[in-house]
Design a protein that fits this description.
The structure holds five protein chains of five kinds.
Chain B (H helix, E strand, L loop, with lengths): L2 H21 L1 H5 L2 H27 L7 E10 L2 E10 L3 H22 L5 H22 L4 H19 L6 H32 L6 H26 L8 H4 L5 H10 L4 H8 L1 H5 L2 H23 L4 H21 L3 H29 L10 H4 L1 H15 L5 H16 L2 H27 L4 H4 L6 H16 L4 H8 L9 H21 L10 H60 L7 H17 L6
Chain C lengths: L1 H23 L3 H21 L3 H25 L4 H4 L7 H21 L13 H9 L3 H22 L5
Chain E lengths: L3 H18 L5 H25 L8 E9 L4 E7 L1 H20 L7 H20 L3 H12 L1 H9 L23 H30 L6 H4 L6 H18 L8 H8 L2 H26 L1 H28 L3 H21 L3 H31 L17 H14 L6 H15 L3 H26 L19 H16 L2 H18 L9
Antiparallel strand pairs in E: 1-2
Helix pairs in contact in E: 1-2, 1-4, 2-3, 2-4, 3-4, 3-11, 3-14, 3-18, 3-19, 4-5, 4-6, 4-11, 5-7, 6-7, 7-9, 7-10, 9-11, 9-12, 10-11, 10-13, 11-12, 11-13, 11-14, 12-13, 12-17, 13-14, 13-16, 13-17, 14-15, 14-16, 14-18, 14-19, 15-17, 15-18, 16-17, 16-18
The chains are: A mainly alpha, B mainly alpha, C mainly alpha, D mainly alpha, E mainly alpha.
Chain lengths: ~100, ~600, ~160, ~500, ~525
Amino acid sequence: MTLAAYLIVAAAVFCCGLYGVLTRRNAIGMLIGVELMANAGNINLIAFSRFLGQVDGQVFTLFAIALTVAEVVVGLALVLLLYRSRKNIDVVQASEMKG
Amino acid sequence: MSTSLLILLTLFTPVGAALTLGLLPNFRRAGRPAEYLSVAAAFVSLIAATVLFIRQQLVSDATPLLDTHIRWLSHNGKSLVEVGATIDGISAPMLLVVALVAFCVQLYSMGYLAGESGDARGRYFTYQSLFIFAMEAMVVAPNAFQVFMGWELVGMCSYLLIGHYYQKPSAARASLKAFWVTKFADMGLLFGLLVLFTVGGSFGWDSTTVTSLGSSGATAVAALFLLAVVGKSAQFPLHIWLPDAMEGPTPVSALLHAATMVAAGVYLIVRTYPIFAAAPDVLTVMAYLGAFTAFFAACVAMVQTDIKKLLAYSTCSQLGYMVAALGTGSLMGGYFHLSTHACFKALLFLAAGSFIHAVHSNEMENMGGLWAKMKLSAILFIIGSLALAGLPGLSGFFSKEVILEELSHSGHALPFVACMLTAGMTAFYMTKACLLAIFGPPSEGARHAHESPKTMLLPMGILAALSLVAGFGGTMLAQMYGVEYAFHFGTTGIIATALGFAGIGLALFAYLPSRRANNPFGALTSVGSFIRYGAVDRTAAFAYRNGLCKIGAAIGWFDRYVVDGVMNLTGWLPLVAAQRLRRIQTGVVTDYVYGVIVGLIVLIAMGTVFK
Amino acid sequence: MMLEYVAFGIISTAIVGSAIGAVTSRNLVHSVLFLASTLLSTAVLYVHLESALIAGIQVILYTGGVITLMLFGILLTDDTHAVTRQNRSTGHLAGGIGALAMFGFIIASIHQSALPSLPQTFDINAKSIGFAFLTKHLLAFEALSLLLLAALVGAVVLARRSDP
Amino acid sequence: MSSLAWLTGMHVLNIEVMLAICALVLLLADIIMPHGDKKVLGWVAAAELLLCLVATFVLDLQGSALSEAYFGDPMAVFFKRLFLVSGLVAILGSMEHIAQIAPRRQGEYYMLLLFSITGMCLLAGARNLVLLLVAFEFMSIPLYVMAAYAKTGPEFETTQHRNKPKWTEPAEGAFKLFIIAAVSAGITVYGLSLVYGATGSTDIKMIREASSSPLFSLGLVMLLVGFGFKLGAAPFHMWVPDTYQGAPTPFVSFLSAAPKAAAIAALAQILLGGALTHSSKWTPLLLVVIVGSLLLGNTLALVQSNTKRLLAFSGVAQIGFPLMALVAVTPTGVASGQTEGLAAGLFYLAAYVVANMGLFLVIEVLETAQPHRTFAQQDMNVLSTFAGLGKRAPGLAMAALLFLLSLAGIPFVVGFWAKLYVFLAVWQAGYGWLVVLGAVLSVVGLFYYLRIARAIYMDHEPERTKPLSTPTTISIAIGFCLAATVITGLYPNPLIEAARQAAQAFLLSGG
Amino acid sequence: MNHLLEIIIAAPFVAALVILALPSEQTMNMRIVALLGAGVSLVGSVVVAFQYDMGVGGVQMLNSYPIVPSLGINLTLGVDGWGVSLLLLTGLIIFTGVFASWTLTDRVKEFHVFLLVLVAGVFGVFVSLDLFIFFLFYEIAVLPMYLLIGIWGSSHKVAEAGPFRFVWRMLDIGGKEYAAMKLTLMLLVGSALIIAAMIAMYLEANLTSFDMLRLENVTFSHSLQFWAFPFLWIGFGTLGGVWPFHTWSPDGHASAPTAVSMLHAGVLMKLGAFGVIRVGMMLLPEGAQEWVWLVGGIAAINVIYGALGALWQKDLKYVVAYSSVSHMGLVMLGAATLSVAGWNGAIYQMFAHGLMTGLLFALVGIVYDRADHTRHIPDFGGFGRKMPGVAVFFTIACLSSLGMPGFAGFVAEWLVFLGAWTGQQFWWAMIGIVGAWVTAIYILRVSKNIFWGPGPSDRWKNISDARGQEWFPLWVLGGGLIVFGIWPNLILDFIDLATSTYLPSVTSLAMEVHP
């Protein structure tokens, strides 16, 4: 397999995630999109690591995964907070502040 | 006493008085002390001027008695403009005339203005003193630049003094009009100075300057100076301010608008005559213009009912004589007439002022029968009138003869004829004035009239004496000017005198009290008023209202709503843009993500990635 | 070789397919499960790329941690089932254009870039990763530990109902 | 590697270690302390930061650690001091506010703030992509939490009857921040992966040798976007006004200052420390971002009625100037020893930080005096809060005026020098048009700054106001900002020299 | 070492600080402190004039303090012949300005602080020899104006009309805040252009120095000169009232309080023209020569346009403001001639116009104060009887304004006309002279409409003449107009000394007009 193949898969995942972020009205739905985007980066890293024969990519991935988890933790807490005050997590409705 | 000190005394006592009065408001407002100070200053000035005149007269050759100047403006470390004083044959007589008439008028004013508030009198005498200084400074100017400064300053004093009764709308208007018209003409002098300096290389009128000016340069300078003369000396068509200027107190009319200030134009020509001499075309124009003004103004004077207006037009007319004379190249004619005219016209105004003071009206109808009440004033007025009319032996006769003689030799036939006719008309309207004002049917005002106080009569007497005898000073003046002069009573003189007597006779015929009912010249009145109010004044007023003010309004509007409008628009555009643009901040986080993604896509699409 | 292609085909189809499912499914729970599927498939891909350690961590942290968290999140924000579990989407066209444009750009870049080919030797194992962790990336590692602490405290602070 | 050789040079991490310890101390103290007056924790945090700040002057922080993954140079020190100062100001400004809205959660607040600053300090010296990413996230994650740090609870029930709940802003603002941050983080990781793929290393300095393939360039662009969001540069700025509006004002003063500086530090690391040789790839993109920020920020600020939103947009415009300064660093310029661009950027950031923080703290004081203060800041920070300040509190008004002038770039406050210095560097780099554009648009900026000045001095005082009282802590913070703004404005040389040294060390010695 | 210049600049600053420290109810003390500050500066300026060695010439009392050595920014102060005269002008205006604002009661503290800061900036500009510091002081002088007008100014109505009437909906046109904002923004757009030109010059000179004395010796490339000169011209010129960027001036002056108008029209507008000459023309001589045709042409437009525009105005302050536009046109006209006479005239006009317009605004302020805050000229009439003193001084100002010999304005106008006439652009002089005539028309008409004629009507029965300290500015400024009109070399010698050293290096066109 060429590196390009892996990269294309990652690109596809990235763009799926992007699509999700752009179209979801549900806050958790958006988070799912974000996860996909992050995952795409990880695929890239592993693929590069493999093809370059170099360890840093894998280390990088480990850090990235951990960071994503941390983000999700805080993000979900924020979603909860949003939910508590609004009674829903529809992002279109959470637009009190604008202009 | 040294000459320098004398000239300092001449010039700076009046301005010192003015300054003192200006800086000490309380002293000024006291009235009477201010008058004394001002008159004393004028007296000192007169004495000093007289001494200077005598000394100059004693100098046998044409060398100036005094020629001193100091740097006034620096330019590149050197001198650009200088101020100082030149006493020579030209300036010394004029200086004396100015100082003399000024002193007489000052003295007279003490009586004339006695009824006014101390404040008004203080102001009046301050301005008068300032005027004396300005006029004298102009007269002794060593260069055209100082002439210009004095010229402008006397214009300023004229503006201030015409506006003495500033509460009167007509006076306020008249002073503005006088200033605007003369200031308009003064642009010519300013341009002339620029040409003189840049082409001629100095502000002087010496032969070097005239040579480097060349023919065209001299013509340009002379023509531009002439414009200023037309304004200041009330020549057609810029004479329009002079009749209105009679709104000022009568002594002001006597000093400024008869004897001295209006003669400044003539003096300018006399002073810078070397330049004019190099511009024959301009001289020709002057001859025609002066003669036309003389004739035209005399016509208008014939139909006046207001004694001051009559005298004002008469002044115009006489100034026309002088300009015409200078146009023929006769320095003597113009300058001699200037001097004699100053005496008798000032006398006439003062006498008229005496009447006005008595009856509180300018209309000749309201003065009828003053003979009975104020004989002295009346006699003095008649002396002045006769001098003006050119009764042989009186001063006006001599000077006018010179002019007519010169005109007859000049080859300008039309101006000559016009001036001859004017001589007759002059005699006519002056006689008319005497008949109406002094011998007319007793009027309401004359019933309560009293003879004027001595302070008024004394100066009139001095001037009357001069009017009687000044004509015999011609030889002396000519010697000072450095020109040839020998009086001879030739054909021209005889015809002119005859015309004068004809005028007197005609006036007697028309205006003798007994014949008043069927005035054969009634028709002239309407023609005169058409000339007076119909043409020049109307044109000027129209040009002001519909020309200048409309342009001003258009520019004002343009500035406010177009130029500034564009500035406002520039401020308005970002605000409107912002109001539109803020809608992209929808508040929905998805749209914010779009912002990021669109930004990303745009940055990638810029193409640097793929290069 | 053929087998590898087939394996890769299956794995990548699983990854992309479940990713598409995750972003298009109308049910939020389904979306999360699709996400789990993507992440697991990715772990398989890591194994395929001889990175077993990462694959393991991917399964444990992601699938074990993230998915669970998300499900909890759904449960906690689930007052009225009908509303919240509905995973509505809007702006398909704009989103699609955006995603496709990005995809196009990335593909174009991949296409135009010279990429390394598969090296013959590959000896990265858990030990070398561990060594890198504790030498060069020690600082990042330590920072990460503090970061996780911060995230934890932060989440607690946010999630605490309120101050008295 | 058998010895502990890799541990040499760890002294450069003194400040970070101190900060981490301080944060942990706070956490412990918070746990140990009874639910009483936890306000003292604020003082503790402030003292700790002050200690760290002093330490930056005392300790030796030069050198590198961990195979040059971390580098201590004058620029890192410059940034650390900047972060510490802004943290100190933020803590002093926050004490009253936090004690009021979240008496039980004060310890966590300060701890998170300290963690965030730790992340920033790490970022300033990070020379490794992994460390850079971790540090960046370390800085960011506490911010999301703090942005949502507002009271929920009793108010929630009492306002239940209203049609629209008005107190959701903190959550909403923080959530918006979080989503954009998460998307940006996704983009960043993806971009980093591409850059890693092209260089084969996580060392930033290796980027210099990378061949500039499209994939690598794409990675750079994505990094630009990923960090650009934190800068609040257009068009990645859209979260900024909403988050500012919703978050506690003292925190906003921090959020608007330090993270932006940190993001500039990160960009400087990657673009100047790494990708300077590829400047033709990113310079045009950065120019687009700069022009966009200047235009959008200045325009949108014109019509804001809420002061915090106004300042948010003004911040969007302001960040264009340090970015300009980055553009002004060119490979040829660096080769001939020209480092004015970066120096100007550093100086600008310092100037911006003090003035902006001071201004937000003034707003905080004013908000406190509003008649109906709920804790959600709705309808309170409109321009009318400033109305009549000139009469109510002349001193505070003068301070606000000077901050505004500094932001607008008017002498004799520091902003003037900052703007001129940036312009000088940008022109030197050959972007004269950018100078003209920037200068003209700062005049547009002046319009809205002067609107505030107008409210302060010309508008009439609103009727229902509580008497204005400035807590001592905020007074100290504002006083510090004011002193820095004015003194540096009168004699900017020390700061300019510091910035120049930092820039020279970073750009000239690193290679 | 002579530290007079430092004292002159520092005195207002120190006074401002002292006023800041005073409790806000001690208004009289504040005024006295302000007066002391301004007085120290004035006395300092006079002493500078006496200490300036005419035999040596050039820049004297030169002191330099490093500010940012690495960029070559030094606080370099020195005074030349121009500086002497303009310092004196500034000193006179501010000293009288403090008196003119004696009756102000609203927020006295801030007023004087802003006023003094502004003045310190003005002093600074006139003696700065470092381009950067020059600009810094320039900006310091410009900005306080916003607050001074915005807080203490007055609003008026502007009828909604014209092609852009829709802007009225969004902008409060005629309001004091509007006027202040417009003024500030327009001037700072100008500053933006100045910044660009300044930086370009600094970098091209490559001296790492902003020292103007050194930059003068640099021959900048033609392309830089060609574009940078217009930048400086419009940049500084906006403050100098260059058409069409003068529109801040009528609104600004109309809205400003008395002392501020005095200071602004009297001194601040001069900064603009001074900047054009000192920076634009002297540092970029080739650019100046390329562009003078336009500079002079626009200046000529200014003269006649301002005068005609004034003819239409009904608001007293607008008249004076337009007259300032017209007179500043004369300054620029003189500058554009690139001749000794023209430059002498330009600087002298700055001085003369400063005194004249300061006096006019002081008088307008008094009239405005007495007449129930009305400035509508047709409402007035016959005030001369109730306020003779004001009328006299108004007349003095008018006469100087229209170029009457014996008043300072004449000297300046004459020199400018002479310069223009010799500069091969005689039509500039013609327009200028006609403009002076139009000035006579509008300014005397205004004087007549206010002070002359019957009245005053019952509405104004309570008006009174100037009183107490109000007399002071009138006497000083009016007296100055006359003294410097009668004996112009008191100041002109200083100016000429500087001009004759500076001009030859600027232009080969410098014509030796004297035979």
